[in-house]
Structures are given as structure tokens and as C-alpha cells.
Amino acid sequence: MRPYLSCARHLMRLLAALLCATLAACASTAPASLPPIFNDSDFAPAAAIDASQVFAVDETMRQYLRTEVRREAHNKNDRAALYDALYDKSRLKLEYDAAMTRNARETFAARQGNCLSLVIMTAALAHELGLQVRYQEVLGEESWSRSGETYFVAGHVNLVLGQRLGDNPNNYDAKGLMVIDFLPSGDVAGYRTREISEATVLAMYMNNRAAETMSEGRLDQAYWWARAALLQDPSFSGAYNTLGVIQFRHGDLAQARRTLDHALLRAPDNTVLLSNLAQALEASGLPDQALPLRRRLLALQPQPPFHYFNLGKAAMQRNDYVQATQLFSREIARDPYYHEFHFWLAQAYARLGQLEQARKQLELAMSNSTTRSDHGLYAAKLQRLRAVTTH
Fold first, then answer.
1. Is the four-CA dihedral 330, 270, 135, 244 of positive or negative sign?
2. CA distance 120 to 302
3. What residue spans define the domains of the chain?
4. Is 285:249 a contact under the CB 8 Å cutoff?
5. Are 256 and 248 in contact (CB under 8 A)?
6. Interacting residues of 105 by C-beta distance below 8 A, sequence separation 6+
7. 11-20, 172-181, 202-211 — which one is most confidently predicted on average?
8. Bridge partners, residue 152, by sequence
9. Fold of the domain built from segment(s) 307-389
10. Are 6 and 145 in contact (CB under 8 A)?
11. CATH number of 1-300
12. Whole-prediction pTM
């Protein structure tokens, strides 16, 4: 089981491919380092975006630090006390939920969030304690998910805390750095990491919000989130992709092509960008220009994520449940932690009358679910299946 996964959420495929967005208010002029990719006049004004609110703490959080963390720090230090407060399930009682990306205060109030939300909340508390905070992207730790016809790829971020030495705010214990990670340690052991700035983390937060609001059909708000992400960190390539997808869905095809083409120049082997730009060109009536991208994409990714899953669903529609179980199993072999693969395999087994196998797959779907709603759905189906098998 891998309970903490969906961190920097990159929207991909369908005609979509996003990452995690950044902050920054809707400034009237873009920095010189950004290409001319914005089309503000085509989008209605939306709620203002205030970057300072992402890591902001409130009095409830300060009270928690005073009563629960600093009290423990008498026997340890602030860093160790914060670590214990986060990991002791009898205290803060944090839960993983990937339904939306929350800021620090929202995550603390809800006691739940996705990986990025939990990182932001932890960093905000650490800042309040005067701890040094560094952020790391875990390289190679990606997983796929989908919402309707939109596909997402999720990466992972953790943070490193340093203990201050004495009264000098710039003097930290370099030998006593502590990694805070919301994945079990075994799941990230051996992975390479890359240090990223807090501006990039802000960009990830805002890009997530762009992806989430876009999925809800709120394209105007999504545009401003993605725009803010790029203003916060113009080097954050995922936000270019997010912006291009939003422009595509808004019907601004020429602008979408321009944005995605710029992003592809920065990352020519990025399969998400290749797929999205090809779709934008095809939708613009330019299939000849899309063809080289399709060929490149096929060479880089002969079987894209969800390939066997989609074939399995087609087999289910043909009532070929034996082949469906084989195809779903092949997809699970590539990504054993995605709940929906197990759910569909459970359905195929149930159609074949293999109820014990169906039960096992439903249990895996439930244990790997990333939202409360999905967990509840699978729990209810599992309860009904158990009722059938016990009679």
C-alpha cells in the first residue's frame, strides 16, 4: 500500500497535461523572461490570487505549536518535536486526501490533504518555529491517474528541516538535517532528489489549483491560476503545459499551440507536451504538422499509461471478461498502486464468477484509494460482495 502519493499533480493527455501551479497575483505585465503566451483579454476576471496566503499560519496553528510542539521541545528540540507531532497519529491525526490541493491553514483545519498540501502545512509550521526548510523533488517517483477523460501524472516532493544553532538566524546544524516525507520511507529509499526553491513549490501549488479548477470546468479561474504559476516561477515547465491545455479547452487554439510549442522547445522529449501539441495541431486542421510529433511520441512511448486499461475496458464492453482480466493485470503490473485498475479487475472477476478474486481486488482498490469518496465507494461495494459470498 502506498497511502501518500499524489503530490505535484500534473494534468496530462486527453488534450490536457498539467503540473503544479504557482502563485503570484494577476500582474498586468509579465516579466521579461516569459514569452508572449498570455491572452488575458479572452478570460473573465476571477478571484484574486494572493501568494502570501499559501504558507500563512493562523492563531489556531500557533496555539498548537505552543501547547503541543514547544512543550515537547523541552525534552528534544523544535525539529524533533514537530516531527513527532506530525507522525504520531494520536495527536494531529493527519489523513491523506487527494480531492484538492489546500494551503497551509486549510490543510491544518481539515487535518487532511494531498502530498503537496501536507508539505506546505509542515513548512509553514517549521517556519513559525524558526527552522530551516529546504524542498526536494523526488526524481522518478511518478504515478498516473485520471478524472473522466483527463489523465494526470503525479510526482513527489518532500522537505528537509534544519535546527538553528544559537541566536544567529543563519546558523544551522548541517549534520542534523531531518527529512519529512509523507510517503513511507521504503517507498522513496534509493530515489534521487533535486532541491527546488519555495517559489517552485508555490508554483506547484498554483498549478495544482489550475488543474483542479479546470477539471471543474472553471476555465477562467484556471487560467489565472496557471498564469500566476508562471509569474511565480517562469522556469516551471509544467505550468506552460497547464496553460496550453486551458487555452485549448477555451477554444484559443493558436494561443495554445504557441504556449505548448514554447514548452516543447524547453523539453523536446516530454511525452505529455508532444501529445498535447499534436492534439492542438490536429484540432486546428494541421494534421501534417502533428504527424512528426505523433511519430516521436510513439517512439518514446509505444504503450502510453492506461494503454492496457483502456483495452481492458473495451474487452469488458465485448463481454470478453477473460481477456479483460489479462489486460487489467498487465496494467497493474506497470502501476500496482492505482486504485481504479484494481476496481475494474474486480469487476471482471465478478463477471466470471470468481468472487474471491474480486474481493481481493476490491480490497486493494480500497487500500490504494486517494480520496474519501473513492474509499467509501469501494468499501460499500466490498461490503455488498461479502454479503453475497457469505450466503
1. negative
2. 36
3. 1-300, 307-389
4. no
5. yes
6. 53, 56, 57, 58, 61
7. 202-211
8. 11, 145
9. 1.25.40
10. yes
11. 1.25.40.10
12. 0.82
